[in-house]
Structure formats: structure tokens, C-alpha cells
Amino acid sequence: SDQQDLSKTNRHRLKDRGIFSMSLKGKVAIVTGGNSGIGLAIVLELARQGANIVIDYISHPEATEALEKQVVALGDQAIGVDADVSKVADLEKLVAAAVKQFGRVDIMVNNAGVETRTSVLDTTEAQYEKVLEINLKSAFFGTQIAAKQMIKQGDGGRIINITSVHEDWPMPGNTAYCLAKGGMRMLTRTAGVELAPHNICVVGVGPGAVATPINLSTMTDPALMKKLDDAIPLGRMAQPEEIASVVGFLAGDGASYVTATTVFADGGIKQSSPGL
């Protein structure tokens, strides 16, 4: 597929530049929502850099098993954990599974997310609760529980929140999602300040439009795709690997002084202008 070809091309390009080091060798990462979309790409990127991975999922166990095999083929270890990140007890189970299997947690990636594509006038209470619990509550308590484990270990860590350009940029017709991502923005900033004395860096990654299942309704409509591509200065959606590579950088030693902020990978969409 085009996506696989692009991914392969990017990998070769990075390898040629000597970027594909095993900089995360011996590290242990948890990725929520890790068996599809951006989460899956993050799992593979962290594994390529040498990390052992705990893959959180709530559906498609067969996809998780296939991903575990890919991680093992890269020379690392992985376990899948069926956990609903909107529940604190399940987040505790995730961290406990990492500690039991690998002895520690170094990197927590709060990636799980959903949207309802509903406006402030038509969002139901159930839709609101679902989006806020899966996107924001999970990131809050994922940060809390992972940070407590990292503090216990005593040598710092990285917490990476996958937010969106919509933590800052309105998306009419998707209000609960924007609200959740805006909350993740302030979680990242505030927790980053609070946890800095423990050498725990908290960083957001804000993707723009990415070719993943969450954007299928746009990707299958040629008119909508043209409208979207025209709005992006780089002229195209991102591939999941292009977001994962940013996460890989932020998880490594090269980002040791980055905290309490968001790194946007959006092809320039937030800055696009009609030039009138």
C-alpha cells in the first residue's frame, strides 16, 4: 500500500542519517489504545528504538497478538493488556502488568481517544461522558499512576500525551472532543511543572489530520479529502509513522529538556490562511 511504501521510505531515510539508534534499549513503555492507528505506529517506533512495550487494547485481540509478534521480530518484548482506560482500576492494572513483566515503567503514552463529531447543541450526556472519560480522565489518571511508579523507581521518566491541534484550534461540530483535548493541554502543562522536581517530563504531541480509522469518514469522501488537503500547507494528511517518530524523539535522551508543552505535527494546518 502507499502507506506502507511511505513508511518504508521514511525508515530508510532515517537509517541513512543514522537516526535509528537503540536509544530506548532497556526502557519500558506503556501505550494506551496501542493496537491501531497512531498507537500502533508508536508501539512499533518505540520498539525499533529498543523499548519493551505494554500494549493496551479493548477490542481486536488478534490485532494485538499480530503487533506483539512484530515487536518480538524487532528484538524486543511486548505484552498485550485488555484494559479500559476510562477506569482507574484498569489503568492501575496496566502499570502493574508492566512492573510485573518488565520490572519498571519509563515511558507512559496516553494515546487512547474517541470522538462523537457532535456539536454543543446536540451532544448527549452519554456522548459527553464517553469522550471525556476515554480522552481526558484516562490521561489524567494514566499520568498520576505512571508518575507514582516512576517516583518510586527514582530515576525520572517520560509521560507523553497524544492530544491534537484541537487542544487549541476549534473544530465546530466536535465540541466534546475539543474540550477533552483542551483539558489534556492544561494537564500536560500543569503536571509537567508539578513533576519536574522528580525528573519526569510531561509533553503533548498534537497531530493534525492523520490517515487513521478515526478519519475514515473524511478519507472515503473525495470532496472532503480535497477540502482538507487544500487547507494543509504541506498538502496532505500525515501518516501515523510521522506522528510516532515525534513520540520516539520525545521519549529519548535528545528531548531531556522538553516538558510542560505541546509539540505540534500538523503540516502547518493551524497556521494556514486564505491570504485575504
Terminal CA distance reads 39 Å
Strand order of the largest sheet: 3-2-1-4-5-6-7
How many β-strand runs?
Answer: 7
Q: What's the alpha carbon Rg, rounded to whole Å?
A: 18 Å
Overall mean pLDDT: 93
- Beta-strand level of the residues, as a percent range? 5-15%
Number of helices: 9
Helical content (DSSP H or I, runs of 4+): 40-55%
- Describe the global form: globular
Low-confidence stretches: 14-19
In terms of structural class, how would the helical and strand content be classed? alpha/beta
| Assembly state | single chain
Major sheet summary line: 7 strands, parallel
Q: What keywords describe this structure?
A:
7-stranded parallel β-sheet, alpha/beta, 9 helices, globular, 276 residues
